[in-house]
Amino acid sequence: MYNFITGPLLWLSFIVFFVGLGVRTVLYIRGLDWRLDRVAYRAYPGLGIKGALSSIIHWLIPFGSHGWRAKPLYTIIFFVFHVGVVVTPLFLLGHAIIMEERWGINWPTIPMWVADVLTIGVLIATVLIAIRRFALPEVRILTTLYDYALLLLTVTPFVSGFLVVHQWGDNTFWLYTHILSGELLLIAIPFTKLFHVVGYFLSRAQIGMDFGIKRAVKAKGGFAW
Amino acid sequence: MPEGILCNRTPINTKEHLDAVLGDKGGKQYYQEMQELDVDVEKLQKSLQDTCKSRIRTWLEICAHCGLCADSCFFYLANRRDPTQVPSYKILTTLGEIVKKNGNVDNAHMRYCMDTAWGKCTCCNRCGSFCPYGIDMGVMFSYLRGLCFSQGFVPWEMKIGSGMHRVFRAQMDVTPEDWVETCEWMAEEQQDEWPGLEIPVDKEGADILYTVNAREPKHYPEDIAEAAILFHIAGENWTVPSTGWEQTSLTMFAGDWEGCKMQVQTVYDAIERLKPKRVMGTECGHAHRATIIEGPYWVGREDGRPPVPYLHYTEWLAEALRLGKIKIDPAKKIKVPVTLQDSCNYVRNYGLKDITREILSYIVEPGYLIEMKPNKEHNFCCGGGGGMNGIGLYRKQRNTGMKVKRDQILATGAKLVIAPCHNCWDAIRDLEEVYEIGIKWSFLKPLIIHMAIIPDHLKPQEEEEEE
Ligand code: SF4
Ligand code: SF4
Ligand code: SF4
């Protein structure tokens, strides 16, 4: 069982994840239409790239955009969540060992205590995000069960992983939960809203090009995101 | 598939049709017929297939339901944070449903779409700059308006506006003859005060071709006279076209994509015909949006730019003041607290934020300009954009929405609001009428004329003799 879910199934998850994201990226870009979107994408590659980068970077940095600065508390929660969700699994010692054993790749890692802090950060942020979802009327009206389900799906590998690392509870159970939920997450990403792991960059690049090429042509230094 | 006599899926293309709809005062019968208007699902599906591509579909799908866009929308703020005014909610329950159900929606849904697209959004695009993904409801509501228009679910005034453009190539019933006559009349009127002032029509190869908003010849001809006076003072070699003079586009507000193309093509044809070095428009936001920003795409120009450089009025004015073509009498500079309305259409959506401020630096005594907060590309819509000023059905919604602008102005303590945009100007005038906050409002032209130093050779003869 363990060999299967950390072998073929893991492979399959990664394939679905990468191929799925790849296909969606290609479809997205092919679906951009200079006439319908009314953005001359091809005519001004320089302005387009500058606009896209500025749009992405301002929003990638905490408090880097007017939008983030308008919501300081949420910004902190948001970044704690996202930094933890991305960095922890990528650079976890345990994951690097598997990489080394399976494929002989020497992968960089973060110290265990950092991983712990990040994970706890993710868990706290998750709770706050969930509370925000039903506490604020303007968020509650938008929220569906699907949003909670995705939040749960995203956080399960973190909860279970944390329990495994710290050997709390039934270790085998939590280990299997961790691996399976992690794989489920990978598979779900291309097919759900979680597509935003790539979609964020695509969408921001598009609006950045829109402003860079067309809507902020006369603004010195481009649009003030 | 019942369609009404007045309310139907056919755009207005003839004078008779236009008169029939106009004759229905306030759109009483029109809106009654709309209650029964069927949705042509097949046509809607075809539209979706042809025009709803990855950008909009992705926006609708990845919206994180985070609500960060809520505070960015002045309608949400003005309506005491009513959650149904959250931009994301507004689009997901309208366009989102249409896309999700692949066009299988009913009459009630389309009417709800209309009420939302025109009554709860001015397409000011502010929310787009506050969403982490850059999801722009202004863009999507414009798109939804197109779907609504093609199905006949469009406010009465917008149907008429689109019809006006299709019949007259102007948003009001002004024919080329009316237009040329108005120009002649305005030039004549000024002769006493401005001897030799001309409004040249159809001059080829001029430095500047000037285009306007149809309400100028129709209701405010003095605006044309003012433009002429300033060109006269600046010594510009300019002209107006006999056709293709109308720069605005109610077709854009109406969602009449075909009409948008027709209208802007008329202007571009005038440019090709008269070959001016540059074109320039009046103090109007949506005219600029229609003819300079979106227009090139409607007619299919791959470079996304008009055929020759096309300036907003403020760009020319800043240049004229900068180069000293127009000189300001320092004694006449504005010395009352004054604030500036940034028009979404050429500030957020074109970047002209510094140009207007440059102008003010020449005409306002230092210390008297008090900026609104927020301002520049993050300014709030005046409340009357997107055609809302003209729609009777949503007058109440508009007046409520204007509270945000009212409070922004009040917070500055300004007594004068400079609004170099026809729509903003109207909205601020109405705002004063509704809320009586004791402000004045103005375009730039009259202010500049009042402050400009008149070169001696332009002054009337008698005066010179006296001296
Ligand atoms: S801010 Fe953007 S992602 Fe969040 S709810 Fe609004 S549109 Fe959706
Ligand atoms: S475009 Fe403007 S009016 Fe429309 S939803 Fe966005 S912020 Fe509100
Ligand atoms: S009327 Fe003025 S402020 Fe309102 S949307 Fe148009 S340009 Fe913006």
Give a verbal description of the structure:
The complex is a heterodimer of chains A (225) and B (467). Chain A has 225 residues and is mainly alpha-helical. Chain A has helices spanning 2-6, 8-30, 34-38, 45-60, 66-70, 72-91, 93-103, 112-135, 137-140, 145-165, 171-191, 196-215. In chain A, helix 6 (72-91) packs across helix 8 (112-135), helix 8 (112-135) runs antiparallel to helix 10 and helix 10 (145-165) packs antiparallel against helix 11. The longest helix of chain A is centred in the middle third of the chain and has 24 residues, at 112-135. The model of chain A has no long low-confidence stretch (mean pLDDT 95). In chain B, 51% of the residues lie in helices and 4% in strands. Chain B is globular, with a radius of gyration of 23 Å. At the A-B interface, helix 2, helix 3, helix 5, helix 9 and helix 12 of A face helix 4, helix 6, helix 15 and helix 18 of B. Bound molecules: iron/sulfur cluster (3 copies). Residues 122, 124, 285-286, 343-345, 381-382, 384-386, 421, 423-424, 427 of chain B line the site of one iron/sulfur cluster.
> What Rg of chain B do the Cα atoms give?
23 Å
Largest interface: A-B, 58 and 55 residues
Biggest sheet descriptor of chain A: none
Number of DSSP strand runs of chain B: 7
- Radius of gyration of chain A (Å): 20 Å
Beta-strand content bin of chain B: under 5%
